[in-house]
Write a structure and sequence with these properties.
By secondary structure, the chain is α+β, with helices and mostly antiparallel strands. About 45% of the residues lie in helices and about 15% in strands. The protein has a four-stranded mixed sheet, with no helix packed on it. Strand 5 and strand 6 form a beta hairpin. Helix 1 (about 1-15) packs parallel to helix 5 and helix 8 packs across helix 10 (about 215-240). The mean pLDDT is about 90.
Length: about 260
């Protein structure tokens, strides 16, 4: 799969407008076994309580059954288990959605495919949840702008409840700009609409992409790439007198105006 992903990355880089028509077949037995092995150990479990270790006891058969459901288009992710963790510097709590281990495997496989395409599209101003980038890199470039440029003002922006309110329709529309494989789009759509369980009751998810899912960060970056990063680069910067920069980490960003 790694060789095929590298080829996809090369094509995506060479042709920014290319739409990929055949991607779902990359979720095969070999790649999904690898995704299982790459999954962290001893993590919180989904509503069925299946651990990585338990799933691995009959790995070959489990993966064969999984691939069969994917090929027959009958695969549907299990609703995630809703839990809450303390929010940093706040009395509020942040909701997390914990998928079943098998769904984590599929999400990891899809994330690899999406990263191979969109890492060539994402702008340098984006740092959150990206390979070989972290919050320290974002702070480093932020400090560079403040210390080395004649900054007039800095605007610190946080999108309120971003992950809970992402518009599913627009996520899918943005994906279609690069992906024309209906099978892969169908699976992603089912993850978005998979719902969650809380106190024994199932809830629908009409909006949002649950934090806790492997696929959520890259979907968030794709959404914000189109609605924020490109908007700033194509519209805002052109209307500014002097230089303007933006540094974004997930849904936190800091646009700044320089003389």
């Amino acid at each position: 799969m790694e060789t095929k992903l590298l080829r996809i990355a090369e094509l995506a880089k060479s042709n920014p407008k290319m739409k990929f028509t055949s991607l779902a077949h990359l979720l095969n037995e070999q790649s999904l076994v690898q995704c299982h092995r790459e999954s962290p150990n001893k993590k919180a479990t989904g509503i069925n309580g299946t651990t990585k270790e338990q799933y691995g006891e009959n790995l070959e058969e489990n993966i064969k059954d999984l691939v069969s459901t994917l090929k027959s288009k009958s695969y549907r992710p299990v609703p995630v288990r809703r839990m809450y963790i303390p929010k940093l510097n706040s009395n509020k709590k942040r909701p997390l959605g914990i998928p079943e281990h098998e769904d984590k495997i599929v999400q990891r496989g899809i994330t690899k495919i999406l990263n191979s395409i969109y890492e060539n599209d994402f702008l340098d101003c984006s740092f959150g949840f990206r390979p070989n980038r972290n919050c320290h890199d974002a702070l480093k470039i932020l400090n560079h702008y403040i210390e080395k440029r004649s900054v007039n003002y800095v605007v610190d922006v946080d999108i309120k409840g971003f992950f809970d309110n992402v518009d599913h329709r627009w996520v899918m529309e943005f994906l279609k700009l690069r992906i024309a494989d209906p099978n892969l789009l169908r699976i992603i759509g089912r993850f978005l609409k998979g719902g969650y369980m809380e106190e024994g009751k199932k809830h629908k998810t009409e909006y949002g992409t649950p934090q806790g899912g492997v696929i959520s960060p890259v979907l968030a970056n794709i959404y914000l790439h189109y609605v924020l990063d490109l908007w700033f680069e194509k519209r805002v910067r052109k209307q500014c007198k002097g230089q303007a920069f933006i540094v974004r980490y997930a849904d936190d960003c800091a646009p700044r105006k320089c003389a």
